[in-house]
């Protein structure tokens, strides 16, 4: 598959396209964008919030400071599976994998601390750190590797099932099951993972506006303030002239988060009906649950992209631009994939540019670009 790619150099870096997909890309008359890592650089916001939240909660539960590099490696394994579009899923599963490396004698107190936190959800209650557990570098590496070997595009479920298989019939399995229960991690319940992550990312004021909850961390500045736009004015102008009203957005952000960083684009680039947010995904999830189907409709489920494509219809063909394996898998689940839906991967603003570029080419993306701004050269 990789032999079919032709490359071209740009100011940003090398970009490639599949020769067999070139004509289809040029004839497409609609473009849909992912947001994070595609339109907006999130390396110092969402990605940093994953590391900070995981480290903070793990230290609160165990007294242990985590080496950042191990978390980076583990996060890459999660993301390339295609099942971790929601960053809180990544935090939850990293914590679960790390906790399996603790001695059984320390897991009971961890469950108790989580239970106490629900009774008194304050920063002081969470950060009253216990004495550090016996937990060396080897245990950390082995526990992460063992659990993450089960990861697939089902995301959280694959990790929870992996832990259950690893420790079935053992005391550790019972203790981890109790921890999972006390974490109360779900799409709708703002347990400690979601509450702390959201406040880390949004900052205390915006978090309170979005959730209606009292802040825990009292941060004057959230990591969202670190975000920078990737797409430049020249690319925006080209896309508007070329595709007009057939420009869409399919993002895992809430509308409020998107408005904070994309206010100009949301008003002048995407028609309101052409954008799909987490708010829309949550509404669909509640509809599914009411009908007896407990399946989260976010990426890589095709619902978000299908919803946006319906808004930009009628169309002859669509280019979908994203930066993650979740984006690719979602596109691949669409009716007409590689016929009238073509995936273009961008890699230059990921934490692992070289690996991401190779991953997209091995998967057979129609094109792989350094950034969204190379679309001008690709689609002319």
Summarize this, please?
With about 375 residues, this protein is an alpha/beta fold.
Q: Name the beta content range.
A: 5-15%
**Fraction of residues in H or I helices:** 40-55%
- Overall mean pLDDT stands at 90
What is the CATH domain class of the largest domain? Alpha Beta
Instruction: Indicate how many domains the architecture comprises.
Output: 2
Judging by the overall fold, what is the CATH architecture of the largest domain? 3-Layer(aba) Sandwich
N-to-C order of helices and strands: EEHEEHHHHHHHHHHEHEHEHHEHEHEH
Largest sheet: 8 strands, mixed
* Class computed from helices, strands and strand pairing: alpha/beta
CATH topology of the largest domain, anyone?
Rossmann fold
- Trace the largest sheet across and list its strands: 1-2-10-9-8-3-6-7
Cα-to-Cα separation, first versus last residue: 24 Å
What is the gyration radius calculated from CA atoms?
Answer: 21 Å
Low-confidence region ranges? none
Please tally the β strands and state the result: 10
Number of helices: 18
CATH superfamily caption of the largest domain: HAD superfamily/HAD-like
The coarse silhouette is globular
């Amino acid at each position: 598959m990789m032999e079919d790619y032709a490359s071209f150099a740009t100011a940003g870096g090398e970009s490639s396209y599949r020769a067999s997909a070139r004509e289809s890309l040029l004839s497409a008359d609609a473009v849909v964008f992912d947001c994070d890592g595609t339109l907006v650089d999130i390396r110092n916001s969402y990605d940093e919030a994953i590391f900070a939240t995981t480290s903070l909660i793990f230290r609160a539960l165990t007294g242990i400071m985590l080496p950042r590099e191990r978390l980076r490696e583990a996060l890459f394994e999660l993301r390339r599976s295609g099942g971790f579009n929601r960053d809180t899923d990544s935090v939850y599963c990293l914590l679960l994998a790390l906790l399996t490396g603790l001695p059984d004698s320390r897991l009971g107190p961890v469950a108790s601390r989580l239970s106490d936190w629900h009774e008194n959800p304050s920063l002081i209650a969470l950060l009253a750190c216990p004495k550090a557990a016996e937990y060396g570098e080897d245990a950390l590496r082995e526990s992460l590797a063992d659990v993450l070997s089960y990861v697939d595009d089902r995301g959280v479920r694959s990790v929870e099932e992996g832990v259950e298989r690893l420790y079935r019939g053992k005391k550790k399995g019972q203790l981890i099951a109790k921890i999972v229960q006390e974490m109360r991690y779900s799409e709708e319940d703002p347990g400690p993972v979601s509450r702390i992550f959201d406040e880390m990312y949004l900052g205390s004021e915006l978090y309170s506006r979005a959730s209606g909850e009292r802040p825990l961390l009292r941060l004057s500045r959230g990591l969202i303030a670190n975000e920078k736009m990737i797409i430049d004015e020249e690319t925006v102008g080209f896309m508007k002239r070329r595709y007009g009203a057939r420009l869409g957005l399919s993002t895992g952000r809430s509308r409020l988060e998107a408005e904070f960083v994309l206010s100009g684009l949301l008003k002048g680039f995407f028609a309101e009906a052409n954008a799909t947010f987490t708010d829309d995904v949550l509404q669909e999830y509640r509809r599914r649950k009411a009908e007896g189907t407990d399946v989260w409709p976010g990426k890589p489920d095709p619902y978000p992209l299908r919803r946006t494509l319906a808004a930009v219809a009628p169309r002859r063909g669509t280019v979908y631009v994203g930066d993650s394996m979740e984006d690719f898998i979602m596109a691949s689940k669409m009716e007409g994939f590689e016929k009238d839906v073509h995936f273009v991967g961008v890699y230059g603003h990921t934490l692992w540019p070289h690996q991401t570029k190779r991953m997209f080419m091995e998967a057979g993306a129609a094109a792989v670009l350094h950034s969204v701004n190379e679309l001008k050269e690709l689609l002319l």
